[in-house]
Amino acid sequence: MILGMLVISNLTVKSRLPPNKTPVVMMEFIKPFREPAYLLLTIASFLFFFGLFIPFTFLILQGRSIGMSPRLAAYLIPILNAASLFGRIFPGWIADRVGRFNVMIVTTFFSAVLVLALWRNAHTNASVIVFGALFGFGSGAYVSLGPALVAQISDVRQIGVRNGSLFAFVSLAALTGSPIAGAISARDHGGFEGLQVFSGTVMLVGAVFFAAARISLVGWKVAIRV
Asked: Deepest in the core among 96, 171, 186, 207, taking most CB within 10 A?
């Protein structure tokens, strides 16, 4: 379905301005990392994504392990994704009013705490479903806010390059996080606590780096829109 929709999009999209051919200069992709705020933002995004997709991958298996029926367990990811829709909309709306970095810090800490406090202790159908819904909302905020943070600290002409550089690193975290979690689970003889601790911890450290990026921009001022 995604491939089919992308084919239609690529065949019908039209540039607003005539294309301007420019040479690819690798230093344009490297220079942003000299800026402390951008470097810290990249590290934060990498760490957060390192743990982000682990619940997506293992939530159904964990639900089945506590006795959830296969039919109900199959709805866990749709529930998570449905909540993520609201997480992508409302935090972005709030961020325009109170600050994008501020909202990102709150939602990433919220997501990490959910994994460490709620998912680790979810032993009933209701608690697993509640975790899925809340985690979907909290983690969904990154989808809308991540590129916005890059845009906030970038020249408008460099937004594309700087987003590309950041997500090039983030893609490595997204690719390797779940396999590492799978190896941890295998070491624990199919248990889930080790991968839950890993997921929550790296996300929590990522949230700390989002806070560090904010500090690099405005210092320790709390009551300020950033």
From this structure: 207
